[in-house]
């Protein structure tokens, strides 16, 4: 069986990369990332489908309550939370890459016998017709 040649990035991946480039330009103009990114995060949440928007809103509320030291920002167009210029976690709408899971991913490096790991929690979207 012959597979199709690799055509590079998908449309969703290109869009995420373009979003990240826009975010970096905005940070550069806002004095090295010191700008408040919460309005952008809230805008991204509003653009999500209803199920993901609800989950993202709840996660946002929990993080703001439990870890107020984290700063909300967009990261590749997704709501993310940073500390000391490092992304700690981000929420990816299942619609972003057309998946049935909406992960809350952690980028906190953990060392296990010299290996760096990142964790995530995936929430499968419920189909209203089920």
Q: Can you describe what's shown?
A:
The protein has 130 residues and is of the alpha+beta class. The chain contains 3 helices and 7 strands. It has helices at residues 11-29, 38-47, 50-66; strands spanning 71-75, 78-83, 86-91, 101-106, 110-112, 115-117, 120-124. The strands form 2 sheets. It has a 5-stranded antiparallel beta sheet. A two-stranded antiparallel sheet has the order 5-6. Strand 1 (71-75) and strand 2 form a beta hairpin. Helix 2 (38-47) packs antiparallel against helix 3. The chain is globular, with a radius of gyration of 16 Å.
Which terms summarize this structure?
5-stranded antiparallel β-sheet, about 130 residues, alpha+beta, 3 helices, two-stranded antiparallel ribbon
Q: Mind sketching the topology for me?
A:
Layout: H1 11-29, H2 38-47, H3 50-66, E1 71-75, E2 78-83, E3 86-91, E4 101-106, E5 110-112, E6 115-117, E7 120-124
Antiparallel strand pairs: 1-2, 2-3, 3-4, 4-7, 5-6
Helix pairs in contact: 2-3
Strand order of the largest sheet: 1-2-3-4-7
> Could you give a short account of the major beta sheet?
5 strands, antiparallel
Look at the helices and sheets and give the structural class: alpha+beta
Distance between the termini: 36 Å
Helix/strand order: HHHEEEEEEE
Task: Tell me, rounded to a whole number, the average pLDDT.
Answer: 79
Q: How much of the polypeptide forms β-strand, as a percent range?
A: 25-35%
Radius of gyration: 16 Å
Q: Count of helical segments?
A: 3
What share of the residues lie within helices?
25-40%
Principal-axis shape: globular
User: What ranges have pLDDT less than 50 throughout 5 or more consecutive residues?
Assistant: 111-117
Strand tally, please?
7
């Amino acid at each position: 069986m012959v597979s199709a040649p690799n055509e590079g990035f998908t449309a969703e991946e290109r869009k995420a990369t373009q979003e990240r480039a826009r975010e970096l330009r905005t940070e550069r103009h806002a004095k090295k990332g010191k700008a408040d990114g919460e309005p952008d995060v809230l805008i991204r949440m509003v653009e999500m489908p209803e199920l993901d928007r609800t989950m993202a809103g709840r996660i946002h509320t929990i993080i703001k309550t439990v870890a107020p030291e984290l700063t909300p920002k967009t990261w590749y167009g997704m709501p993310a939370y940073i500390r000391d210029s490092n992304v700690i976690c981000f929420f990816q709408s299942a619609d972003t890459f057309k998946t049935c899971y909406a992960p809350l991913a952690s980028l906190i490096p953990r060392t296990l016998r010299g290996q760096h790991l990142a964790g995530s929690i995936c929430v499968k979207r419920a189909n209203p017709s089920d």
